[in-house]
Each structure stands twice: as C-alpha cells, then as structure tokens.
Design brief:
The complex is a heterotrimer of chains A (275), B (318) and C (263). By secondary structure, chain A is mainly alpha-helical. Helices cover 80% and strands 0% of the residues of chain A. In chain B, strands 6-7-8-3-9-10 form a 6-stranded mixed β-sheet, with helices on both faces. A 5-stranded antiparallel β-sheet of chain B has the order 13-17-14-15-16. A 4-stranded antiparallel β-sheet of chain B has the order 2-1-4-5, with helices on one face.
Chain lengths: 275, 318, 263
C-alpha cells in the first residue's frame, strides 16, 4: 500500500463522515418539518390569544367534561387491558393448542384495521341494528368497547417477549424451594413482568386518550355524555374555533409526552437487573 | 435420606432419555452422575427432583414413594448450571426465599440466612443483586439458597459448568469440604470426569439413557465395565480390541522380544508429567504418559526410535 | 389442570368476541344483499378514486419514511450527537399522539394565519389537497421503520462492520454489503407496519383534507361518507377492501416478524 492509497482512504473516511453527517442532518430536518414545526405551531396557536383564553378554553364545561370522560375511560380500559393482555400473552407463550399461530397473528388486527372500519363494525354489532339485541350506541359502554378493540395488542405484545425470555430455571428453582404455582407467579414471574405490563398499559392509555375513528360513530358524540376530547377538538375545528381546539389539543399533547416519559422510565427500570 | 430409583423410563416424544434406569444412592453420600451431553443424566436428576415425571418406574426418598409428588413437596434442594438466581431480589432475599415461602418466623429467617451466608462466605454481600456478583459468588449464593430449607437431598445440575477453570477447581474443593461439614445426601451431575473423580464418593456413569456402571472412582478406573466407561473416565489407547492406559505403556530403548518398534512423534511437557505421542511401525498411533524423570532417563525427544509394550491391558467380552 | 383450561378459554373467548365477531360481520353485511351490489359500490368512480388516492398517498409516504427511518436509526445507534434523547422522544411521539391533534397542528400551520399559510397564496395548496394529506400520513406513520431497525442494529453490534473495515472495505461498501443486509428483514417488517398505518389513517387526514368527495377523499374517509349518506352497502364494501388489506397485513406481519414467533 503506497502513500497514495493511504491518502485515498483518508479522503474516503473524511467524505464518508461528512456524508454521514449530511444524511443525519437531512433526517433531522425531515423530522423537524414533519413533526416539530407542526407541534410548535400548535402550541403557539393555543397561546395566540393569551394564556387566559387558553385556560378558558380548556376549562369550558363541554371541554372539561370531554377531558374527564376521556381520561376516566382510558384509565379503565388501560387497567382492564393489564389483566386481559397479560392473560392472553400467558396463554400464547405458555400454552399450546391447535390454531395458536392463527390466534397469535390475529392479535395484530386492531393495529392493521382502519379505525373507521372498526367503528362502523362495532356500531353494527352493538348499536341499533345489533343482532344480539343490545344497543350500546350513544352510551359510554360503546366507547369502552371501541377502545378495548383498538388497545388490544399493546399489553399483549409488550408482555410476550419478556415472558418468552424469562428464565424458566428461576421458576423451577422457586418450585424446588417449596413455592406453589401461585407463589411462583406472584414472587418470581410477576415482578419480572411488571415493567413490561406497565409499558404496554401506558401505550394503551395513550392510544385510548387519542382515539377518534372507532369512537366517533358509536358514541353519538353527545356533549357531556359521550363526547371524548378528540371528537370535541374536531368539532371545534368545524365550528371555527381553532384556539379552543388548539388549547385542548395541547393538553392531549402534554399527556402524550408524559406517557412517553413514563415508558422511558419503565424501560430503564426493567433493565436495571439485567447483565 | 437415601434415594432409590427403580426401572425409570422417560421419553420426550420419540427420544428415549432414560431407559429402564435403576440407581441406589446411599444416605449422606456425594454421588456424581457422569456422562456426555444428551446421556440423560440431567433428566435423571430432574426426575429425582420432581421437575419431570417418569413414564414408568419409581422414585423413593428414604422409604417414601415420591414418584408422583411435585418438586415443591419433596424437600429437595436444587442448584442449576446457570444459577437461576432471582435477579430481582438481593442476595439476602434469594437465600431467604424458601423460608419465606414456608412462612417461618422473621428472627428464624434472619438467623438462618446469616448463618448460611457466613458458611458460603458471602456475608458482606447480602444487599447486592445477583447481577453484581461474579459467577462463583452467584453459585455459592444458589447453594446457600438451596440449603436454607434444610433439604434431605441436595441436587446439583452441572453447577460449575458456567465458570472458568480456576474458579471451578476452587468450588470443587469447597463443595467437598461443605459436604464433609453438612452431610446431606448430594447428587452432582457433570460431564467432566475429572470433576466426578475428584469430588464424588460414588459415580454413576450414564450413556444414552442407560446406566453403564456404578462404582467408586477407583473401581471405575481400575475395573471399567466396558469400553465406554473406560474411555470416558480417562484417556485410553485402543489397539484392536485391546485397551491400554497411557500410563501402562512401557517404553524401552532396546527391543525385548515382546515389544514393538515405534517412533516418537511429539513430546509434550505438562509440568510434572510428560505425554509422548508415538507411532508404531505398523502405523498404530499411541499416547503414552511418563514422569519427568522417566522421560529424562530415556532422553525422550522427537524422532527417537523406541520399543513399546503394554504393561497392563484390558479386553472386554461382549 | 382446571386453571389452565379456564385461562385458555377465557382468553380465547375474549379474543373471539372482540376480534372475530367484527371481522365476520364486515363480510356478512357486505354480501348480505348479494355480490353484485357490493361490487357495484366498490367499483363506483368515487370509490375507485378513493382507493387510488389512498394507495398514492401510501406510495409517497412509505418510501420517504423508510429512507428516513434507516438513516435515523443508523445515526441514533452508531453516532453520538447532541440532542439524541430529544430526537428519540420526537420520533416516538406519533405513536402516542391523537391523530386529531396531528391533523389540527397541520391545519394551524398551513391554514390562513398560520406560519406557512402564505404558501397557499403562492399557489402551493397544502390543506384540502394532496400535499397536506401526505404530510399528515407521513407524520402518523413515521416511527415504525426506525423502531424496528434500531434494536437490530444495536444487537448485531459493530463487529461485522469493523471486520469489513480491516478487510479493506470503504464505509459505503460496508454499509451496502454488511449493514443493509443485516437490517433487511427489520426494514421489511417496518415497511409493512408503515404501509398498514398509512393506508388506514383516518383522523388526521379527515381534518386536513376537508373530505371533498371525489377529490380529497381517501378510502377510510369514503367509508365514513357512505355511512353518513345511508349507503351502508357502499360503506361495508369499502370496509371489506380495507379489511382484506388488513388481513394481508396481519399475515405479512406474522411472516416477517423479526426474532421468530412467540411460540
């Protein structure tokens, strides 16, 4: 290798590092244009008529009621998912039965299916035309059902990999030390699953809070009764009250950011015992 | 408490892991289950532990038939190759686990755990998490944890396999001393014949789900039951149907009627021992083992022509 | 033991109730009155335009997000730069944020009085037109490729790349022959997720597009407009198309899931 070859490879190294930097710069620019700038515009618009207006818009009876309803139902749905999601993940990992592969695949359906289709179908199943004779339209139960549908995959998919990786020998050791099935679950399995369950719950919660398409049909959007925040915001846009829409949106944005922070904390917590 | 295994068979699908295995483990002994990977030794241990149920046969602890009793009811202590440490609990909580599950009173737990941590020399580390311990420390913790519940039987599944050579040797000696102190019936599964010979009072050699031989280390070495045991328990030269230990190849510089001519291909000095790789004039390769003095007396070196004959040999009738 | 069967049937029952019933109903309602009406509905000019628009938007959003995703994943894992944590958080935001908020933010940014509202004056129509819908779709489907590639990159480590370097490969060659093949399946899986999300997007696009029939109506929006116009067959026919795409997505997800299956 002569000096020209060394010079060539050095030039290549500089070029490639510069190229890498440029690529990174473009990627971050893309991210900014797509996400950051619109978010900034949102926050700015919410305060464009002063913090007083912001606060008024958020605490207006209809807006406030929608927020309370949204958060309340989302907490309920997220908590319910903690139980059902873990149970489903357990069955998928530890149990075996014909068609398990099919069931495992089908868990992803709520992610793949457009929310409006889910909403339409749930309305047909449980609304006035229901073949079962129930009518959950214009009721909070309808909202709960829709949210249960769309949040199904989150806890399941968060728990599955952790459960798969769980050291079976830990459970056997506990068993050999005299722990019964329930004690093994409570003292060994559950503590190791908890961070993953909480991450899944947090994501499910965030999804539920922001859900629109599946809820907008079955809930009837009755203010103070079945109107969730996302629908309220859309309504404010139509009523030409962008400041009001922006204010409530910023509240939802803050909730989303808080959830992301929480999930990051859970991840940190989860890996603290690994090495 | 002694352990009796009678005609146990265990299958996993089509694979027969244990084939009509019968073993008697004397009370208070330290027995090794020795065999290559896949021989069924771990399966046998797990059947004795109650983590797997045999398809047929019987397992007894003392006078009690425990064949269908689950692990938690058998009073066995188990140590796993990869420690199976409860990674979300401290060392203290790990060792205390069995006692907590049995709902023992707090001061009894405190006393016992301190005692055990001192026994395994981990007393300063009780607040640490397993991730913060070395492999050897984790395994000592696992032992303390298993002993905490006063098991009748202690089962160790390749306990030192994941550790490096020096730590392994230390822990072997340490286990021997521990057993001398605590006298619990102990079974150790290993594929390392040196480990088995060093640690155990009795060795059960298992191959392909069958017991090949049961005996003391000496018995296995001096009177192996078949080719498998002989070659598993130590290095051996196979000459046709005859088996000769490297130690039993006598090397001379002059022919003496019975000896065969051979050339030294390689001489390896292993400290106090010398290993010589030879090839006979009929093409047969041999490995011989001598002391340093013997090698020096012969002036053993590569290319030297010598005369070899077995001073002892074994033939197995089939 | 009873516990296991109870758990199994409980879980499966819940899933059947929650998932299979709805999907079954979509197909039933669509073909309730025969195949012909459904077929007519789905091949009407408005429906076909909606389908075409949906696919077009996806065809723009997915490649862009893929390029971005791979680039950013490499930067996040292999390079250190200031603001890495912030970038991580921003990338994850679309998953946690309501689509309505997304739509609104674009509406505020590009609408009259917004920072970029002036673009409309220069003839560049963002809102109530294709560009706005593409921007909204890119936003909501942004994270998937990044999130799939990052853990794979992290796991394979730099060993192979360093080995390539010692063998004389240029950084670009290393990228092309070592890094890219290693992340190939993760990228594939990420693309499947991105596409599904892009096609199925409803809330954000609803606000940004103005839902102008025949012009800015994607297939999901078409479903809503048909339903509101009491044309349930049309709504369900379009739903079947979307459901079939969703089923294909689910199958593809299972086939390409990185790291094997949970079984």
């Amino acid at each position: 290798m002569g000096t020209s070859a060394v010079a060539l490879s050095r030039r290549e190294a500089v070029l490639s590092r510069a190229g890498g930097g440029i690529a990174r710069g473009i990627a971050i620019g893309y991210l900014s244009v797509i996400v950051l700038v619109p978010m900034a515009a949102l926050v700015w618009a919410s305060r464009s008529q002063g913090m007083g207006t912001f606060w008024n818009e958020v605490t207006k009876p209809e807006a406030w009621s929608a927020l309370k309803l949204t958060l309340g139902i989302s907490v309920l749905v997220a908590a319910f998912n903690a139980l059902t999601g873990t149970a489903i993940a357990w069955v998928l990992v530890r149990d075996s039965f014909p068609g398990k592969g099919f069931v495992n695949a089908v868990i992803d359906l709520p992610f793949a299916l457009p929310t409006i289709v889910a909403g339409l179908v749930l309305l047909e199943l449980y609304g006035p035309n229901s073949p079962f004779g129930v009518n959950l339209a214009f009721q909070r139960a309808g909202i709960v059902l829709a949210l249960l549908f769309v949040t199904l995959p989150f806890v399941v998919r968060a728990v599955q990999p952790v459960l798969l990786e769980l050291d079976r020998e830990m459970e056997e050791a506990a068993e050999s030390l005299g722990a019964g099935r329930f004690a093994v679950f409570r003292r060994i399995v559950f503590p190791n699953l908890l961070p993953a369950v909480l991450s899944g719950v947090a994501l499910a919660f965030a999804r539920a809070v922001g859900e629109f398409g599946s809820v907008v049909l079955i809930s009837g959007n009755i203010p103070f009764k079945t109107e969730v925040s996302s629908v309220y915001i859309a309504g404010q846009v139509e009523s030409d009250n962008p400041a009001g829409a922006a204010a409530v949106s910023v509240v939802l944005l803050l909730i989303s950011l808080a959830v992301l922070l929480l999930i990051g904390a859970f991840r940190h917590w989860r890996t603290r015992h690994d090495r | 408490m002694g352990i009796t295994v009678v005609e146990v068979t265990k299958r996993f699908g089509d694979f027969v892991a244990l084939d009509d295995v019968s073993v008697a483990i004397p009370e208070g002994s330290l027995t090794a289950l020795l065999g290559p990977s896949g021989s069924g030794k771990s399966t046998l241990l797990r059947v004795i532990a109650g983590l797997d149920e045999p398809d047929s046969g019987q397992v007894s602890l003392g006078d009690d038939d425990v064949t269908h009793l689950p692990a938690r009811a058998r009073g066995v202590g188990m140590v796993f190759q990869h420690y199976a440490a409860f990674k979300h609990m401290t060392v203290w909580e790990n060792v205390a686990f069995g006692l907590k599950v049995r709902k023992r009173p707090k001061d009894e737990i405190r006393r016992r755990v301190s005692e055990l941590l001192e026994l395994v020399q981990l007393d300063g580390l009780s607040k640490r998490y397993p991730a913060q311990l070395s492999g050897g420390q984790r395994q000592r913790m696992a032992l303390a944890r298993a002993l905490a519940v006063d098991p009748e039987v202690l089962l160790l599944d390749e306990p030192f396999g994941a550790l490096d050579a020096r730590v392994r040797k230390e822990l072997r000696a340490w286990l021997r001393r521990l057993h001398d102190e605590v006298h619990v019936t102990t079974i150790i599964v290993t594929h390392d014949q040196e480990e088995a010979m060093e640690v155990a009072g009795q060795i059960v050699v298992i191959n392909r789900g069958r017991v090949e031989q049961i005996g003391t280390p000496r018995e296995l070495y001096e009177s192996p039951a078949n080719e498998f045991v002989m070659s598993f328990v130590g290095p051996v030269n196979k000459i046709g149907e005859t088996f000769v230990r490297p130690r039993d190849i006598s090397i001379g510089l002059e022919p003496d009627g019975e000896s065969t001519e051979a050339m030294v291909e390689r001489v390896v000095h292993l400290g106090f021992e010398v290993r010589a790789e030879l090839v006979r004039d009929d093409g047969q390769h041999l490995v011989a083992q001598l002391t340093e003095e013997e090698a020096q007396a012969l002036e053993l070196e590569r290319g030297l022509i010598v005369y070899v004959k077995p001073s002892r040999q074994t033939v197995f009738s089939t | 033991m009873i516990g296991r069967y109870a758990l199994r049937f409980g879980a499966l029952g819940y899933l059947a109730f929650l998932l299979l019933l709805p999907v079954g109903l979509v197909f039933y309602r669509t073909f309730e009155h025969g195949v012909a009406p459904a077929w007519d509905a789905v091949t009407s000019p408005q429906a076909l335009h909606a389908l075409w628009l949906t696919l077009l938007i996806a065809a723009v959003a997915v490649p862009l997000n893929t390029l971005f995703g791979v680039t950013l994943a490499i930067s996040l894992v292999r390079h250190r730069f200031p603001g890495r944590g912030l970038v991580n958080a921003v990338v994850d935001l679309p998953v946690a944020l309501s689509p309505v908020v997304v739509g609104l933010s674009l509406y505020l940014l590009y609408g009259t009085g917004g920072w970029l509202g002036g673009l409309a004056g220069h003839g560049i129509k963002i809102l109530f037109a294709l560009p706005g819908m593409i921007l909204a779709t890119i936003f909501v489907s942004l994270p998937f490729v990044v999130r799939e590639v990052v853990p794979v990159l992290r796991e394979i480590g730099t060993d192979q790349e360093q080995a390539a370097e010692t063998l004389g490969a240029t950084p670009f060659t290393t990228f092309r022959r070592i890094t890219l093949p290693a992340i190939r399946w993760a990228v594939c899986y990420g693309v499947i997720l991105t596409t599904a999300r892009a096609i199925g997007e409803f809330g954000a696009v609803s606000i940004v597009s103005g839902r102008i029939e025949g012009k800015t109506e994607t297939l999901p929006l078409y479903v809503q407009s048909q339903f509101e116009g009491f044309n349930t067959t049309g709504a369900f026919a379009a739903s079947v198309v979307l459901a079939l795409i969703a089923l294909a997505t689910v199958v593809a997800m299972r086939m390409f899931r990185p790291g094997g299956e949970a079984s």
